[in-house]
Design goal:
365 residues, mainly alpha, two-stranded antiparallel sheet, 17 helices, 71% helix, 3% strand, disordered N terminus, binds farnesyl diphosphate, Polyprenyl_synt_CS, Polyprenyl synthetase family protein, Isoprenoid_synthase_dom_sf, transferase
């Protein structure tokens, strides 16, 4: 499915058979509509120039400081948080502080991740470190994390305390996952199990938190919240598997990133690890090339031509890494569906969780 965001709240998305595309777009829009005013008010609390830098990151202003309607992200996590409040029988509004807190943590991680990876493009524009410098990317990322906790603690209820504990636990896992991801870049071999564990931490934990935090704020018991977390965790693994596919074969027009973005970083993402694990001539050839790449100086690697990355991508595909990763996304989707099946909720809310999960697997951005 090709989804192009023209600007915030205005998406052009052709239908994909079997996916309730219109329903998902409405859910994402609802998440944005309810969360954005609270998010903007939170960002307004930051001291200058961090408030401006954060506003640039979210797409509310351009690099010159003029008002803009840039791509602020798909807002999958806020949509999940609001749905999870509804799963607990509360109004979606009960999930708003959770939606905002999770989105703040997500964006903190993107700011730092872009800096660590040296990525120059995100959401169709230059990254914060590129425009405002590394110090601002670090400071604003830190500030967004602090704001996330503030937003939850300000609610002042026991449920808010429970929600904050879940968010900080998820954040620690996200940081563990990032540390694992970076350490794997310098290793010749990583097992599929190690890669899945890393991705579960890096991406699964925060989606798990998004899928349960609204329910916690809506007064759900821990058992219900834990089951929704399980749904979110496997959804997160499906999400990351698709992200890994897009990181190699994604269309830059849709993803807002450069071609071959994960290959440029020598990421041991799932398609790479699965291809190396497959055995056979393509797998062995790939292993030789990647082993040589691992020892190349940064400058030499950065100067690679498109063709050189295309050769690596073709070997990954021929060795079966692309197909395996697509299937893994579907397996994780199925496990998420199993977890969802064990939570009592109105059929209409369940259908929305299902639609969101379907969207995650077919998304192209
Ligand atoms: C501590 C630290 C630096 C951690 C980094 C963790 C990290 C960057 C994980 C990747 C998560 C991910 C799939 C992001 C894209 O989300 P998305 O497609 O929902 O992005 P969007 O909001 O732009 O749509």
């Amino acid at each position: 499915m090709s989804t192009t965001t023209k600007n915030r709240g205005e998406t052009v998305t052709p239908a994909t058979p079997g996916v309730d595309t219109a329903g998902v777009m409405a859910l994402l829009d609802r998440g944005r509509t309810l969360a954005t005013p609270v998010l903007r008010a939170a960002v307004d609390r930051l001291a200058p120039p961090m408030n401006t830098v954060a506003a640039y990151h979210f797409g509310w202003i351009d690099a010159e400081g003029n008002p803009a309607e840039g791509d602020g992200g798909k807002a999958v996590r806020p949509a999940l948080a609001l749905l999870s409040a509804e799963a607990a029988g509360a109004a979606p509004e009960a999930g708003v502080p959770g939606a905002v807190a999770v989105e703040l943590v997500h964006n903190f991680s993107l700011l730092h991740d872009d800096l660590m990876d040296g990525d120059e493009q995100r959401r169709h524009r230059d990254t914060v470190w590129k425009v405002h410098g590394p110090a601002q990317a670090i400071l604003v990322g830190d500030a967004l994390f602090a704001l996330a906790n503030e937003i939850l603690l300000e609610i002042g209820t026991a449920d808010a305390g429970r929600a904050t504990r879940r968010l900080t636990a998820a954040t620690r896992k996200l940081i563990d996952g990032q540390a694992q991801d970076i350490s794997y870049e310098h290793r010749e071999r990583v097992t599929v199990e190690e890669c899945l564990e890393m991705e579960g931490n890096k991406t699964g934990a925060l989606l798990a938190c998004a899928a349960s935090i609204g329910a916690v704020l809506g007064g759900a018991d821990d058992r219900t919240a834990d089951t929704l977390e399980r749904y979110g965790y496997h959804l997160g693994l499906a999400f990351q598997a698709v992200d890994d596919l897009l990181g190699i074969w994604g269309d830059p027009e849709a993803t807002g990133k450069r071609t071959w973005s994960d290959l440029r970083q020598r990421k041991k993402s799932l398609p790479v690890v699965a291809a190396l694990d497959a055995g056979g001539p393509d797998s062995e050839r790939l292993a030789q090339i990647l082993a040589a790449d691992a020892h190349k100086p940064e400058e030499e690697f950065a100067d690679f031509s498109e063709e050189e990355f295309a050769v690596r991508a073709a070997l990954i595909e021929q060795a079966g890494g692309r197909d395996w990763t697509s299937q893994e996304a579907r397996r994780q989707h199925a496990t998420a569906m199993e977890a969802l099946g064990s939570v009592d909720m109105p059929a209409e809310i369940r259908a929305r969780f299902v639609a969101l999960a379907d969207f995650v697997v077919v998304r192209e951005r």
